[in-house]
Amino acid sequence: MNIIISNDDGVYSEGLYRLYLEAKKIGNPIVVAPDRERSTISRALTMHRPFRVWKYHKYENWYYTDATPVTCVYIGKEIILENKKIDLILAGINKGPNLGEDVNYSGTLAIASEAIFLNASGIAFSLASFTDFNWDTAQKVVKLILEKYIKFGLPKRVALNVNIPNVPFEKIKGIKLTRLSQKKYHEGIVKRKDPWNRPYYWLGATTPNWEFEEGTDYWAIKNNYISITPISLDITAYEYLDSIRNYEE
Fold first, then answer.
1. Burial 104-121 (b: 16+ CB within 10 A, else e)
2. Which of 39, 47, 81, 92 has the maximum number of C-beta atoms within 10 A of its C-beta?
3. In this structure, what are the phi and psi dihedrals at residue 159, rounded to the nearest 5 degrees?
4. For residue range 55-101, what is the model confidence (pLDDT) as tens digits?
5. Which domains does the chain carry?
6. Residue 197: in which H helix or E strand, if any?
């Protein structure tokens, strides 16, 4: 089984290494990761400048690049594996959650969902914390989910978004299949002054208000469940087609 692994935290991330260790147990993984953190870059491709690829000497079949996370997938497929068939694309383990509507910004989820274009399976893993990461728990969850993937497979044109509670493994209550939650931001741009009294700005400096409803990914994580959300690239709002039917001629 040919497996491509990448992330948006960079090649030196502990989560990337933990994911690689579990992938080695089920197939033949290669790692192609960004040379540094490239979070919230979503589906961006490196198209308007050249990029470089280097071998990472520390581990076998590891590479890094100055390109975007999704570009890493194509580097793995076309340069490293020379267009061999890709069976599985894994992303993560991300430092921080990828919950709710935020997944539209996520480089981690973009990597996994790129599998849909390549007729492969894709799974994104995120550890739901920004500090004191419980990597042992995350690795055990990866092992659990990959075992289920080997046993049951995945439907075509669907990727999985897996979020992991940052607690000891024995405190995890189980797995919940979830939908994406919603959240609201307030005053997301902060204005400050530099020493020369010139304005500059920070984006994303506020804490969002999450929807806390049973069945959502946020609810699952807050209740110490592993959250699995199936993701599709079809963003058609089917439930609203009839309500705007009068736009047709």
1. ebbbbbbbbbbbbebebb
2. 92
3. -115, 160
4. 998 898 999 999 999 999 999 999 999 999 999 999 989 999 999 88
5. 2-182+210-247 (3.40.1210.10)
6. none
